TrEMBL record, chains A, B:
InterPro entries: Trp_synth_b-like (IPR006316), Trp_synth_b_CS (IPR006653), Trp_synth_beta (IPR006654), Trp_synth_beta/beta-like (IPR023026), TrpB-like_PALP (IPR001926), TrpB-like_PALP_sf (IPR036052). Its cofactor is pyridoxal 5'-phosphate. This is Tryptophan synthase beta chain. Keywords: Amino-acid biosynthesis, Aromatic amino acid biosynthesis, Lyase, Pyridoxal phosphate, Tryptophan biosynthesis. It comes from Haliscomenobacter hydrossis (strain ATCC 27775 / DSM 1100 / LMG 10767 / O). Gene3D superfamilies: 3.40.50.1100. Tetramer of two alpha and two beta chains.
Length: 453, 453
């Protein structure tokens, strides 16, 4: 019997996160104040985040220790298993070896608790009573609800209205962990009221929900804000995935030629990739990295690299990122976690420096891959994860055409238990290829008055 | 950092199932033909099951080898983790040590694939093209869909209409694994048409769905039937849970004083209990075993031990079981997997012989326990599993009152990702205590003309 899974013990859970900023040939450009457009320092973030997270956000230390209390909670589901996808390889008839790291074993069902737990922990240490956040499909809101519950912190989640109405189970999950969940836009923030005044039937968006959650934290001294992707400290927390995977690949006696992950704001991709990218830096390896994004929201493959806001209303600092413009409205694909106009600062710089690659897939291709995965490997992937699968399939096909093996590792970032409506829509031909024209992108970018780089 | 989980390697997955029949002081009474009411032999089951499963059903061998092909599929999620519930212990302020075996890591989210996989395997080996089954809440139907998909067998699931309408995600999950799912009663079996003629708006029941699935298999030579609980071979397949748990408890250096599991037809309870009960037989230990059933369907605590049918229409053999009568209609509690009028033959005999105990809990008590578990241990339990929790809480409280420690092990048989509506109903006071009167039970039993024992 071949080993399918490679496990680590709880004692082998890494005791530090990897901060790739230390190794980047070109460091990230500074964030700018949304009003003055001058570079801002850490103190500007103090109304929103606890000091320890701000320190991590701007740190250039290569390794940041993981507190014991955080590692202890990580043991609720970590280390996560590394799988060899024997059944999938056979179905694809490829000489490639395919591995996946499965993050869906967390209580919230995705990789998001990897950062929700330390964020809640540092807030708790600094006496914060309440954390606000936004959520789209609900993966991030669930993770933060779970983490806040553990530390006895109140959690308020602004959930995009279309998801609030369409994914009631996600809301119930957050409620079970004690969180308050609001359908965004609400009438209890100025940002929400501003949107509702323009359109009382607004379906909401991630950008609007961010505006609401940020405003709430900025105007209440007992309340802080938490973000589930994009920011440096969030990406760093997720490196726990790749740090474990490096050890697991060593145990197997193999090493990836290419690492693949879905791309929304970057934390999923960074989480599995950066610890392997470190091996390129430190050991001169030539591992490739491919970020898989939806063709309907192609910021990495078709966006521009310039300063832009993180939210719709324009409350956040300006960040140097690949973006489609913060007014870009992605088509309503089921992979809600990937419907975001911009990319995290670090990942954007790495793409600009050609240290990573990106590839876009339309959703029909992704669901086709997701269904084959479910039928072979058993696990039903989240729609976000199915984007990585589409890239994996392309890499496996390339290996077949070359007649050479290659080792592919991807991040199966979550299960699709709350996304089965998407599969049903796919089976019943209710999904379409959403095409984004060059004109759509040009029109969105034309609305920006933010600094170019 | 304390170890929270105890793991085994894939090589440590047991290579045989434990057949408790070999060790029972009083062997089970024989099944009777539904018409003649004479004892039947294995050949009577041949229209429904492949021969290898029939052999297992009547075997008195103590150990039955697990085929390598089955063990190989088990590695998709097994060995499952054994958790020490530190956070729950603290919240309960109990001197008791609480452990749980977590079976929700399977692709279908419960312990059910432990038997679905070998059942599909033996059918495949004997050339069966199609398997039919029934499902209530959907745990079993999902598991069989997953297993059949793996072996390329068609799967037809008769899903109780109220669940089909109320739990669409379960249906979509089965569809994703390629199964056909029908809302039972249907108009394409005689049993279904008979029910619909009486009541065109019948909400269906597990008993009716069993009648439909059995009829379909009995009348098509390429089709067999599979059952998710009750039968001897099903219970035996589930002993993989307890066999692993015995090894894990040994690794921890502890041993349970009491083993607890939810009780529907018996496979969940048998799975974790029998390998520890073997230690009582073989090593003279004094481990206690408590089956947790819903107060609204109290066959173990308030039923009678006599012959009864497994289904509503009366197509199955008569089995010697604790039963409320096959016409008993349990209240519509969310723990659909426990809404069954009877108990498996082996478990019934063990209860009669006082080798195991039973305890009933109403659903409000169970959800209260389930919510505290979710808030402390993170995992949201299936409503079925929350029944075990209610017993665990009572045992932990008893330990506290005695001022002595005791070691409690329970089977966390599945997660509640598809049952969040139940939690929402609980939080919003839409659930009630369903009381069953002695008159209700007497009335149901009065309809029986089956042999008394």
């Amino acid at each position: 019997m071949q080993n399918r899974k490679t496990l680590l013990t709880e004692q082998e859970i890494p005791d530090k996160w990897y901060n790739i900023v230390a190794d980047m040939p070109n460091k990230p450009l500074p964030p700018l104040h949304p009003g003055t457009r001058e570079p801002i320092g850490p103190e500007a973030l103090a109304p929103l985040f606890p000091m320890e997270l701000i320190k991590q956000e701007v740190s250039t230390d290569k390794w940041i220790p993981i507190p014991d209390a955080v590692r202890d909670i990580y043991t609720m589901w970590r280390p996560t298993p590394l799988y060899r996808a024997y059944a999938l390889e056979k179905a694809l008839d490829t000489p490639a070896k395919i591995y996946y790291k499965y993050e869906g074993v967390s209580p919230a069902g995705s990789h998001k608790p990897n950062t929700a737990v330390p964020q809640a922990y540092y807030n708790k240490m600094e006496g914060v009573k309440r954390i606000t956040t936004e959520t789209g499909a609900g993966q991030w809101g669930s993770a933060l609800s779970f983490a806040c519950q553990h530390f006895g912190i109140e959690c308020e989640v602004y959930m995009v209205k279309v998801s609030y109405d369409g994914k009631p189970y996600r809301k119930m999950m957050m409620n079970t962990w004690g969180a308050k969940v609001y359908s965004s836009p609400t009438d209890h923030t100025q940002s929400g009221r501003q949107i509702l005044a323009q359109d009382p039937n607004s379906p909401g968006s991630l950008g609007i929900a961010i505006s609401e959650a940020v405003e709430r934290a900025a105007t209440d001294e007992n309340t802080k804000y938490a973000l589930g992707s994009v920011l440096n400290h969030v990406l760093m927390h997720q490196t726990i995935i790749g740090l474990e995977a490096v050890e697991q690949m060593k145990k197997v006696g193999d090493m990836p030629d290419v690492v693949v992950a879905p791309f929304g704001g970057g934390s999923n991709f960074a989480g599995i990739s950066f610890p392997f990218l470190r091996l390129n830096f430190d050991e001169g390896r030539n591992i490739r990295f491919v970020a898989s994004e939806p063709a309907s929201c192609p910021k990495l493959t078709r966006g521009v690299f310039r300063y832009d806001f993180g939210d719709t209303v324009g409350m956040t600092p300006l960040l140097p990122m690949y973006t489609l413009g913060h007014n870009f409205v992605p088509a309503p694909i089921h992979a809600g976690g990937l419907r975001y106009h911009g990319a995290g600062v670090i990942v954007s710089q790495l793409l600009k420096d050609q240290l990573i690659e990106a590839r876009a897939h339309h959703q029909l291709e992704c669901f086709e891959a997701g269904v084959l995965f479910a039928k072979t490997e058993g696990i039903i992937p989240a729609p976000e994860a199915s984007h990585a699968l589409a890239t994996v399939f392309a890499e496996a096909q390339a290996a077949k055409e070359e007649g050479k093996s290659r080792t592919i590792l991807f991040n199966l970032c979550g299960h699709g238990h709350f996304d089965l409506q998407a599969y049903d829509d796919y089976f019943n031909n209710r999904l379409v290829k959403h095409e984004v024209t060059n004109e759509d992108i040009a029109n969105s970018l034309a609305t920006l008055d933010t600094p170019v780089i």
